[in-house]
Give the backbone structure.
Amino acid sequence: MQNWINAYSATNLRFLLQGLWVTIEVSIISILLSFIIGLILGTLRYVKIKYLSKIVGVIVDVIRNLPLLLIIFFTYFGLPGMGIRVNPMIAAITALVVFESAMLAEIVRAGIAAVPDGQMEGARSNGMSYAQALFHVVLPQALTMMIPALLSQFVSLVKDTSLATIIVLPELLYHAQIIYSQDPNFIIPMYAMIAVMYFILCFCLSRLAKYLQTRLANVF
Amino acid sequence: MWQLFTQNWQAFLTGFWHTILSSIIALIFSFILGSGFAILETNPNKFWRGVAKVYVEIFRNIPLLVVTMFFYLVLPKVLPAMSGFTAGTIGLTLYTSAFIAETVRSGLQSVGTGQMEGCLANGLSYWQAMKNVILPQALKITIPPLGNQFVNLIKNSSVLAFVAGMDLMYQGDVIASNTFQTIPTYIIVGIFYLILTLPLSYYMQYLEKKLA
């Protein structure tokens, strides 16, 4: 019992919260960037521009089928080789954005493909251009349908930030490891605490997903 | 790069083998566990539904790495220690089973309620109806998403590297730190992963189109 009280001292808790904040920061930046890139890549795959769509398709499929951990290593060790100086934060965000954009691109492509062909045909025959039909008719419907898949992908992005401990990103898991490396008795309390923190973070995000889904269903 | 491979092919293949082994063991057990929890989630009994819901939510919202570390570092404090491979595979199994439970549950719910009512009206027991009528239909719908879960499982098995699980990623790590040829080593590791995941994920896309 004394272990638990000592483990949750004010300094340790503040240190953990600092880690949690880095996790949140990295997650938010990666979610925003990968959503934009994923949307563009997914749409590119759908609209079938000669060669470009094929090339995008192959790149997306290759990245999607590699472990994120491997991509983290690539950015951390590979970018300096290309003359780009990286710190763990930039390497982690780059890896997460590259990997999650590919995952999101696939979700976006499947989402657009799920909109019935009649919608595009109807919009076109009413005098809209292809781009107008895509942005005003097809994409809004596709996005609404994609929300559950998108948000569960965001939840897994938040969880995946923990993999960046391996490149010494000072996020939640890494801070916990620092604390219990000073006193092995803290291992159990630390893992209990970070499990709870991750759970609350991800659970809130999934609840937000459910809420958005019901709200947006009424908008479109 | 070819030289790097010929010099270390044994290590790469050992890693490849452990990745395959761990993925298949985790797939089998997480499928059994996941289907079990999916059935519980559609159970009329409120208590069992609650139990399944809590299990699924816990493992869906905690990072796999934390789950794996729990079995590798925390459990040995109370139970005898286990190897990294075992700890990693148990972590993978529990984590994946929550996702499989969700997939199978949505499959079960897509089978109309009339099917179950019809079975019960015809004198089948709940479990007979589940086993002979509902599950076979549900599993057919869930094959493509299950396949995608398997692809995720193979990719996720790379966390074994954190617990010295002898898998592909771990071997790659060891080779990279011995030879200092970091990027070529990781490219070879990546090719090995693609050999496993790419055909599977294309096959699932094909199945999805065919079943739709």
Remarks:
- The domain at 2-219 of chain A is CATH 1.10.3720.10 (MetI-like fold).
- Residues 75 and 82 of chain A are 10 Å apart (CA to CA).
- The mean pLDDT of chain A is 87.
